[in-house]
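Example 9 (inverse folding). The structure is encoded as follows.
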């Protein structure tokens, strides 16, 4: 039953990614005073499926200089890691009440950087390698802040079980208690998913297309799918931690949709930062604040217990 429900979930996730891309193109179109996709199907609703057919039917490049085995396997590995995170999705037959759920999320999200690192290195391209180095430094820096913030709640709950977010926020959201933590965690999620204004691994205006410069056809679509799957799951995690984890209500999923909309809104509103400012924000602002909260929660838990 778990395998059946998980397979249905994966199919629905891939469909949601397709319509999330359509939502992004529509919202960016309205932000930039243009209509966005409107030709394929009613109001462009079939545009994601035509894009998928075009991507999977286009010609795939063959690299003469590069490690072909790693080149072809890494996009698939990135997609598998992204889909593996959805084991924590709230269904009756899953690992949501798995005692180490938050630790499972931390371990899987840490592996994402390896797919970008190895896919860039195996491409044997200067632009890909630059995007790779930026992405690795960015992910390592912001993962420290992201995991420190999550450790605050681990001390608070005295465990890694994600169901404790559901039980603890029935009367009061953690957003009220830790609003600065939410802002820092949201910025870290933007950096982890390589979204604007932190999209330095792709950097179209500087690196052609960044780490995926040499990818095309189905390989590029796997990278594309893993990125958007990560964004949807990170929105789910943010809502679960700060906005009340009532998995059994429609409002919970509306809040997840609103967080996904904010990803798009930020992309249409802010320019890309300078790389040195990205690192300065992490190590000089976000990390000290996260550490102060960390020691504050630690001292409170020592006094309580």
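The amino acid assigned to each position is listed next.
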């Amino acid at each position: 039953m778990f395998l059946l429900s998980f397979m249905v979930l994966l199919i629905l996730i891939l469909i949601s990614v397709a319509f999330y891309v359509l939502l992004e193109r529509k919202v960016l179109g309205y932000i930039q005073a243009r209509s966005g996709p409107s030709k394929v199907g009613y109001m462009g609703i079939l545009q994601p499926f035509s894009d998928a057919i075009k991507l999977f039917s286009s010609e795939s490049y063959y690299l003469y200089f590069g490690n072909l085995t790693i080149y072809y396997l890494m996009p698939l590995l990135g997609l598998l890691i992204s889909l593996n995170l959805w084991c924590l999705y709230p269904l009756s037959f899953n690992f949501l009440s798995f005692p180490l759920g938050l630790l499972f999320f931390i371990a899987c999200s840490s592996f994402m950087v390896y797919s970008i690192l190895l896919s860039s290195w195996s491409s044997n391209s200067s632009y890909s390698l630059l995007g790779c180095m930026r992405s690795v430094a960015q992910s390592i820096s912001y993962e420290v802040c992201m995991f420190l913030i999550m450790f605050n709640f681990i001390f608070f709950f005295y465990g890694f079980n994600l169901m404790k977010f559901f039980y603890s926020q029935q009367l009061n959201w953690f957003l009220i208690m830790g609003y600065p933590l939410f802002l820092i965690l949201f910025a870290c999620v933007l950096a982890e998913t390589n979204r604007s204004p932190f999209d330095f691994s792709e950097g179209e205006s500087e690196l052609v297309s960044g780490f995926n410069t040499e990818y095309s056809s189905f390989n590029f679509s796997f990278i594309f799918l893993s990125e958007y799957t990560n964004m949807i799951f990170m929105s789910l995690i943010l809502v679960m931690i700060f906005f009340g984890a009532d998995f059994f209500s429609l409002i919970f999923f509306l809040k997840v949709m609103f967080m996904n909309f904010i990803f798009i809104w930020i992309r249409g509103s802010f320019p890309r930062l300078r790389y040195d400012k990205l690192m300065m924000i992490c190590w000089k602002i976000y990390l000290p604040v996260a550490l102060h909260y960390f020691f504050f929660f630690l001292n409170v838990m020592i006094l309580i217990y």
